[in-house]
Design brief:
The chain has one domain: NAD(P)-binding Rossmann-like Domain (Rossmann fold, 3-Layer(aba) Sandwich). The chain is 44% helix and 15% strand. It contains eight helices and seven strands. The protein has helices spanning 17-28, 41-53, 68-82, 105-130, 155-175, 193-196, 201-211, 221-231; strands spanning 8-11, 32-37, 58-62, 87-90, 137-144, 180-187, 243-246. Strand 4 (87-90), helix 4 (105-130) and strand 5 form a beta-alpha-beta unit. Bound molecules: NADP nicotinamide-adenine-dinucleotide phosphate (NAP).
Length: 254
């Protein structure tokens, strides 16, 4: 069993969806968890309360991960209250489903800043806290098949996810020798708010459900959180700069 007792974790975008599942999963494994959100204050507070009810320390903190000042203030809060950071899950992302021919520079920049550049800022501001971890500290980012495939209306997010995966590899190169472990979980389609807002999502969910290479199941946030838990644990110490695909086998199909 994975035991994260005594570890401190921060999950960005943990008020709902996959981030919420990751926060709860890490807490159930023993970690204290900081729950980041940007708009859903009461939902984030509920996640923090649920974590506290497990006997862990928890806090909900508002910070827009695309804003450097917010990220700096969030890491100051983590340092003041929790003194170090062992696990950082970079999960927060913004949508912007539209064809490239209708995308403005502002749309492109918003996706890039929130989904990819934010990870650089998070690590710049958390580097000192992450290197205080007694073993290897763990950074896990969330990506999608859009990073390497062309999907309808997904170009902005897909491009940002390709950048995100590259940033993870380069952070591993730069900071791996300091004891920070970086990996990506690439998830298949999960029926969260982000997907439900996408036109044609019902057909997409049905397609993925019927094409997964396992018995009749839908990919759930908890399935993705299981992979994040593995990469947040010492079991993955020698997995560095990699992308772990959690999609029920959809990605290997011809
Ligand atoms: N769902 C899928 O099928 C799927 C597949 C592959 C990968 N992923 C990836 O998994 C991650 C989570 O996806 P999801 O479907 O769970 O998303 P979601 O349900 O839309 O939740 C997004 C979360 O990110 C937060 N957030 C958004 N912008 C933020 C910002 N600027 N600063 C801080 N927090 C911000 C939201 O906070 P508020 O609630 O406060 O707004 C919310 O907690 C994303 O990186 C996504 O790309 C999802």
């Amino acid at each position: 069993m994975i035991d994260l007792s005594g570890k401190v974790a921060l999950v960005t975008g943990a008020s709902r969806g996959i981030g919420r599942a990751c926060a709860l999963r890490l807490a159930k494994a023993g970690a204290d968890v900081i729950v980041n959100y940007v708009t859903s204050q009461s939902a984030a507070a509920e996640v923090a309360e649920e974590i506290q009810s497990l006997g862990r320390r928890a806090a909900a903190i508002k910070a827009d991960v695309s804003e450097a000042d917010d990220v700096r203030a969030m890491m100051e809060f983590v340092g003041d209250r929790f003194e170090r950071l062992d696990i950082l899950v970079s999960n927060a992302a913004t949508g912007g489903f539209r064809p490239l021919m209708e995308a403005s520079p502002r749309h492109f920049d918003a996706a890039m800043h929130t989904n990819a550049r934010s990870l650089i800022t998070l690590i710049q501001e958390a580097r000192d806290l992450l290197t205080r971890s007694p073993g290897q500290s763990k950074v896990v980012a969330l990506s999608s098949h859009g990073s390497h495939r062309a999907l309808p209306n997904y170009a902005l997010i897909g491009a940002s996810k390709a950048a995100l995966e590259s940033v993870i590899r380069h952070l591993a190169l730069e900071l791996g020798p300091e004891g920070i472990n970086f990996n990506t979980v690439l998830a298949g389609i999960v029926a969260t708010d982000a997907i439900k807002n996408l036109p044609g999502s019902d057909a997409m969910l049905e397609y993925t459900r019927s094409n997964m290479l396992l018995p009749d199941r839908q990919l759930e946030p908890d399935d993705v959180a299981s992979a994040v838990l593995f990469l947040a644990s010492s079991l993955s110490d020698f997995v560095q700069g990699e992308t772990l695909v959690v999609d029920g086998g959809i990605g290997i199909r011809g």
